[in-house]
Amino acid sequence: MKIDLTGKSALVTGSTRGIGRAIAGTLAACGAKVAVVGRDKAKADAVSAELKDSRGFACDVAVPADVLKLVEDVEKEFGAIDILVNNAGITKDNLMLRLKDEDWDTVLDSNLRSAFLAIRAASRGMMKRRWGRIVNISSVVGLMGNKGQTNYAASKAGLIGLTKSVAKELASRNILCNAIAPGFIETDMTAAMAEEARTALMAQIPLARLGTPADIAWTTAFLCSEYASYITGQVLVVDGGLVM
Ligand code: NDP
After folding, report:
1. Alpha-carbon distance 52 to 54, whole Å?
2. pLDDT in tens, 44-66
3. Which residue of 130, 145, 150, 155 has the fewest CB atoms within a 10 Å radius of its CB?
């Protein structure tokens, strides 16, 4: 048994590095054409050049017009978007009492509104073709909350509500929408963590390691595959056992 996405076109936001890059690589390895997306076109092109049948696109997902244009451009280039992975995300951490309005807005716009806009735009084509897979990259922080991350946790919890509502609205058109809630994954986002915090965290993870981008990428590929055709509206927690 092998995950085969031959003939499918995928759009993965935030795929120039980290988890998104691994997702793009894995979907391409499974046979999909992949649109690699970041704010910098040169970086997106460099990543897509390493993958078969892929193209790089520039898009700032915090800017609504950019997201709509991205969906339009990818549909033009590939003829369709069968798989949409809303992965782009940022943090702007501070304790709630010190959090600036603009840092609330930037995180919500980048992490949550972007996903809504991309889903609304890309689902039209999926509905016509009666096939679609949407995967939203949430976080365990959206399930548990986290000190210093009210904005980020709210955006990730919001993605879960969005996922379940979209799953209900689009199920009749054979469009599945699921979320993945990664635990702590080795990427630029977690690289700045102090050694002390890292050691304390490790003690709480039953599998005693941080996750890798590949751990999330294979879960995504599974949710996009025919093996997951009866799964929708779910949050798959991929965290080494942290949350259970
Ligand atoms: P990284 O910071 O390593 O990478 C972020 C990616 O998103 C980059 O490709 C970046 O591209 C892109 N990006 C950021 N902002 C924008 C924007 N405004 N428009 C377009 N692209 C953007 O993050 P991770 O790989 O660690 O995280 C990926 C996702 O997984 C995020 O949603 C994150 O919240 C989530 N997650 C991560 C966890 C972790 O432990 N790492 C845990 C749980 C969830 P570029 O800079 O080239 O524009």
Report:
1. 6
2. 999 999 999 999 999 999 999 99
3. 130
Q: Which amino acid, residue 77?
A: E
Q: Using the predicted structure, report yes or no on whether residue 28 has a pLDDT greater than 80.
A: yes
Distance 89 CA to ligand 1 centre (A): 4
Is there a catalytic annotation at residue 152? Answer: yes
For the CA of 15, the nearest atom of ligand 1: 9
**Residues with beta carbon inside 6 Å of ligand 1?**
13-20, 38-40, 43, 59-62, 87-90, 110, 137, 139, 182, 184-185, 187-190
Which tokens go with 98?
Answer: 């010190």
Q: Among the options 78, 152, 184, 222, which is catalytic?
A: 152
User: Do the Cβ atoms of 180 and 223 come closer than 8 Å?
Assistant: yes
C-alpha closest to that of 77 among 125, 133, 14, 138? 125
What is the DSSP code string of 3-35? ---TT-EEEESS-SSHHHHHHHHHHHHTT-EEE
Distance between CA atoms of residues 208 and 197, nearest Å? 14
In testing the pocket of ligand 1, which one of 13, 107, 188, 189 has its CB within 8 Å of the most ligand atoms?
189
First to last CA, the chain: 29
DSSP one-letter code for 204 = T
Q: Is the dihedral of CA 208, 221, 166, 16 positive or negative?
A: positive
Q: Which amino acid is at 124?
A: R
